[in-house]
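Section 5: illustrative case.
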């Protein structure tokens, strides 16, 4: 039986609405609908909470040699749209080496750098605080080799005294590895001449033309020179085993870092950037050779697909898995830098201020990396 009830609307005028007796079917139906609505709300709420608020949507990133495998996670995140998926509009500026990218950050033309973790320690020794907030490489992926043409009779590191050594850029991580290797033979940085050659075709040409006698650089350049017989490798951190031998422990490599103030004032933006990178790291764990070839720009292959893929297979294990920087790795980096850089006093460096795993941890949970 239909019942009518008079209610008053917002205008104050009465209107008639229908109601029905509250049967058990009505109660069950309403209860189910309410439960469904609550369930939907509970599912939607965490998703809303998980989406970071972006304090800054447009972010400028400086990188030193983007075509190198050292920075592959950045390229993957860019090419597959992972930054856009996080609501970010990134502008990537490519420099000859990591030291130049760092200069862009210090000079204010970049918000974030994709560069070597050890720069955070170096800068703290100069009373400038920068902080890593997501790791991309768990080994430096840098090899040092001597030219078989310029130094056919090479026997030991002592032979490099007075020679010209190519690095991506003076002050970069390739320079740092060269300094470390030479210091163990009692050779100071001032005993050799460092030449910036970049990380791509220019580096190949510099060694093959005789402009330099040896080189410390990343892949794919070093593998290409090695397989063509142009260099003899004398130090190698492209694998975890090689890194252990050179540094005596795990050595964190490429990461996103910025001024500590930027990280503190833009946690949502940093979280979105960490999400994009960890997403890329997870993709790389299962990506096959054909996936890599299809994703990276053609110019990165340096005209030889087979050698490019051979290079990738060599450094694959050096790519980080989940964006987390291990505490032991930070200690290894400090020890390595202090071994050849007198200005770095370990007792005065606060390693806890050089990195944070807060954003990587959330991203790891989100993507199950």
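Designed sequence:
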């Amino acid at each position: 039986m239909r019942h009518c009830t008079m209610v008053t609307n917002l205008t104050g005028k009465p209107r008639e609405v229908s109601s029905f007796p509250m049967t058990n079917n009505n109660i069950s139906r309403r209860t189910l609908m309410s439960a469904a609505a609550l369930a939907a709300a509970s599912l939607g709420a965490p998703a809303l909470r998980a989406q970071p608020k972006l304090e800054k949507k447009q972010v400028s990133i400086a990188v030193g040699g983007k075509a190198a495998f050292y920075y592959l996670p950045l390229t993957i995140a860019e090419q597959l749209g992972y930054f856009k998926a996080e609501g970010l509009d990134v502008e990537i500026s490519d420099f000859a080496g990591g030291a130049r990218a760092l200069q862009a950050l210090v000079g204010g033309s970049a918000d974030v750098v994709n560069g070597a973790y050890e720069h955070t320690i170096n800068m703290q020794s100069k009373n400038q605080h920068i902080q890593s907030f997501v790791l991309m490489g768990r080994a430096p992926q840098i090899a040092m080799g001597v030219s078989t043409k310029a130094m056919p009779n090479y026997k030991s590191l002592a032979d490099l005294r007075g020679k010209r050594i190519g690095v991506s850029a003076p002050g970069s991580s390739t320079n740092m590895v060269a300094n470390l290797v030479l210091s163990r033979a009692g050779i100071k940085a001032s005993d050799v001449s460092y030449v910036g050659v970049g990380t791509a075709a220019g580096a190949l040409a510099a060694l093959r033309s005789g402009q330099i006698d040896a080189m410390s650089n990343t892949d794919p350049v070093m593998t290409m020179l090695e397989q063509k017989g142009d260099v003899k490798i004398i130090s190698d951190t492209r694998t975890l085993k090689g890194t252990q031998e050179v540094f005596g422990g795990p050595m964190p490599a490429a990461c996103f870092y910025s001024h500590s103030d930027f990280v503190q004032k833009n946690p949502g933006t940093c979280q979105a950037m960490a999400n994009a990178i960890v997403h890329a790291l997870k993709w790389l764990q299962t990506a096959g050779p054909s996936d890599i070839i299809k994703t990276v720009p053609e110019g990165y292959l340096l005209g030889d697909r087979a050698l490019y893929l051979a290079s990738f297979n060599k450094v694959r294990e050096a790519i980080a898995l989940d964006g987390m920087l291990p505490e032991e790795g930070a200690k290894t980096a400090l020890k390595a830098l202090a071994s050849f850089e007198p200005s770095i006093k370990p007792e005065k460096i606060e390693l806890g201020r050089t990195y944070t795993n807060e954003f990587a941890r959330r991203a790891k949970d989100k993507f199950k990396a």
